[in-house]
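Throughout our pipeline, every protein is held as a single compact record rather than as scattered files. Such a record has a labelled line for the sequence and another for the backbone structure tokens. The remainder of this section carries one protein's record, kept here as part of the documentation:
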Amino acid sequence: ALAAKRGVVATVERIVDDIRPWAHLVRIPAHQVLAVAECPLGAHPGGLYGRFTSAEPYGEDLQFWSQVREVSRQDDAAFDEWITKWVLEPADQTEYLELLGSERISRLRQRAQSDSWKAEAASMTPDLDSPANDWERAAIFGARTLADRLVATQADTVLAGAGVANLATWLGAEMARERGAPTVLTAELGLLGYEPTLADPFVFNHRAFPSATMLADSDWVLGAMIPGPNTSCVACLGAAQVDAAGNINSTVIPGKVFLVGSGGGNDVATTADEVVIVTTLSAKRTVSQVPYITSPGDRVTRIATELGVFRRRETAEGEAGSSRPLFELIAVASGMEATIRERLGWDLVIADDCVELEPPTAQELQRLRGWDPQGFFLRP
């Protein structure tokens, strides 16, 4: 907004007569604002945290996000119909809120209460009987790998990407702290020292705010803390695709599909002390060279999948320019070596110290499924 040449058109939750009681929260000065539109629930399907202004808070609409994700995976006609209904047809915010309905809005207001997660967690008992699926194995092997790195580096912070990488980070941080690491969780939204919330697996979960020891913003986390000289940070990121150099593509498959986009991925991957990637291993995901680099792989030290874990090799003197893969297999699920070799987009190199991965434990699955009982990310 501050870089805009002409100025800013702002949508706000509420227009007040005097801004001075909240002067410490102002980020855009009046002379740069061309117009203001009052739009209650303007962040929907996102949420508005906190009671430190006169605007009434509301929680994230997880069902809305889930619905648009499912519709977007159908044919173009179905997605066009959804866009027409929710984006094009409402003439203004009033019509949009009428479309949401008062009952849904009331639930979102209730969701913003600091203890609202308790009732949801109690009503969503996780399934503890089903065997681990591919994404759960990837998350658990990623969590173990991350915990090892946090203990080895004694990192101050660990920052999570979205989705399964976030769940792996939560579990890995717990494991590391149990082993004496000082590491605290941080999120690019501005949180530091927060704790996960049961039954809410999203990285931008507003219910985590009350547990944080510091609340800032994305600029501070991505632009000051992580790259700062006095903070050591290990990042755990997901990848739609990852290649032999550790480069991540989360943006586009040219000529086929646009993906979720980069978010803060590039900022994190280029400034964190090291990066652990969590993904599943397939010919489509683990490729020789990504078609688009969202985040460079220079600082990637580990790639954890449901079949095995890879480590960046220490390049020997005189090896620069060698065609030998940068990543070697250091841990493998029982009997999966041939499958890895078949699916991997680069030549498989097995480390001399490669070990067999222990299957996920009941305790590990319980923690993961407690955070994501609905399977938003831990899908089969």
Q: What stands out?
A: The longest helix spans residues 134-153.
